[in-house]
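Workshop exercise sheet. Pairs work together: one partner reads the sequence aloud, the other fills in the structure field after running the prediction. Swap roles for the next sheet.
Pair: D.N. / O.F.
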Amino acid sequence: MDADTPVTYHSFFMSPRFRQLFLCALLVSSSLALGLGCAESDDDTRPVTYSLTAKQNYEKGMAELKDESYGEAKKYFQFVKQKFPFSKYAVMAELALADTQFAQGNYTEANESYKSFARLHPTHEKVEDGYVAFRICEGYFKDMPEDIWIMPPSYEKDQSSVNDAARELAEFKKRFPDSPYGKKIDEMRKEVLRRLVEHEVYVARFYLKNDHPKAAANRIEGAIKRYPGSGREPELLYSLGETYLHMDDPLRAKETFTRVVTDYAGAPEARRSELYLEYIARRFGPNPSPKPTDDAAPSTTTAHG
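Structure field:
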């Protein structure tokens, strides 16, 4: 890990040229948002023609949902719930309303609706087969911070939604180990772990940059323990070994580099770890002494996260 790697905004962030581009992007985004807002408002106020039965209105709502006419779809589903409260289609319309919110990209609202549905109808087939829980996972996943070129990287932002997604995905794996949604859950979990590890690496670099290697080591050690299966273990361990050397702890550095070579022989970090092991042997001998226990108070320096 390079302690000098920049971890703040790009140097051109406040240049006149960038400010001009930034303002243009904001104007375009505002125009698009205004246009989308008008379209959604028109759709919400468009009149609909209700049918006589719950089934007919539910099917009309599903057709509108399929056509992405979300305002009309909501009206049909709400009509079914209000006019036919004891029909099975009322329950189906309740779930369809959550699906409509999800399709609109209103993930927070949709998740609340899915959770309410699960509480009210715990034995419903879409609850028992994992569909509702899967949608909740997907909602948290889609609500994670995105990487936008005019903004800081996602790993520098608040990670609350990423942690929420990690929690729901882990819970899903426990409750529905054989779910047909398992493959998609695994794909989302891999990306969530990648995000969480990137954030920990970012914080560790902050500590290293500010000459607090012990705090950096604690973050990396925590990431290795908390996020197994992230696919970043060789990189994390290699960075941890370098950090131990920075802390004048060649014994722990040797143990860590040896683990990289032994457990991840095919990783690029394995060869670099071998070079470090050769350096440690030349500098400190084959059996480096353990570093004396440091009883000093921990640093109070803080970073994002």
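Discussion prompt: The radius of gyration is 26 Å. What would you look at next?
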